[in-house]
Amino acid sequence: MLKAIGSRKDLKQQLYYEFVADLLESKSVQDLKQYRHHIKTTRFQHSLNVSYYNYLICKFFHWDAVSAARAGLLHDLYFYETADYDATETHESHSAHHPQVALHNAMQLFSVNAVEKDIIQNHMWPATHHMPHYKESYVIVVVDKYCAALEYVAPSLRSLFRKVFRRKRAAA
């Protein structure tokens, strides 16, 4: 079952999946499963989380939800461990540099429209050098940070809840 963090829905059963299936099934996006991201998840899962919540928010506002979903999957399309990044080579922080790498990779591998380019390139604003040009790009700025926070906290909360419920059951 394909799920976003905090959701119980099977994303393969949602309209969302029709818009991103080609990306999700591609080897390059699947390869993101090999990279840890935000300590407790994979870059694939993080990208899926961001993609799905971008889609939901933009769909709610009747904005370009398809571009938001597709760019969400591609926004961290880089193939190196974040911890291995050497800022002395580029003179930029990883936060400012990786959107450029992700955009380059996305454009090499897929057809990417102007909205998707802007979303990928500016998802780390204000760490990036340019302000976003589209409202969908501002959505990812917030959603990316929201998902990162969930990814850090959710596993710890699940573990805490399991311990609490085990103690309650043992006491009963």
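The record above closes out task 2.4. Task 2.5 opens with a second protein, given below.
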Amino acid sequence: MLGLWRKIRRTGRVAEPAPARPAGEGLPAAAELGGSVQIRHVDAGSCNGCEVEIGSVFGPVYDAERYGARLVASPRHADALVVTGPVTRNMAEPLRRTYDAVPGPKTVVAVGDCARNCGAFAGAYGVAGAVRDVVPVDVEIAGCPPRPEAIVEGLRKLTGR
């Protein structure tokens, strides 16, 4: 056992270098947030495909926290909302209330095709519309579901890191 500890101490921390910063300019709110963004996730009526990918984004492989993005449980502690799914009629008002509860400056990220343009649920009787029809959206991430790398890139635009 002592030999294992010696090897760990001799080797040190081993990690891959961070990928290059995302192309394009960051959001104006990123400078105000100082590189650290507290995120509240809202499922507005999705099929849970995007939630699986968001779970992997904050897992050990993609580790979005190393870029300054952290999930919080309350919108009152959040700087940004990450919204998935088309907004159903039952979730339109709760989404507006959640958006209003986030202190300024606030940003909204629409994750997935359903959040961007209702995707496969376009025209369904229970769908109120896309996220931008209910609250203003700052960043849209395409895909059904989007790849974790795309979600990390979108979050890095928020943090500026």
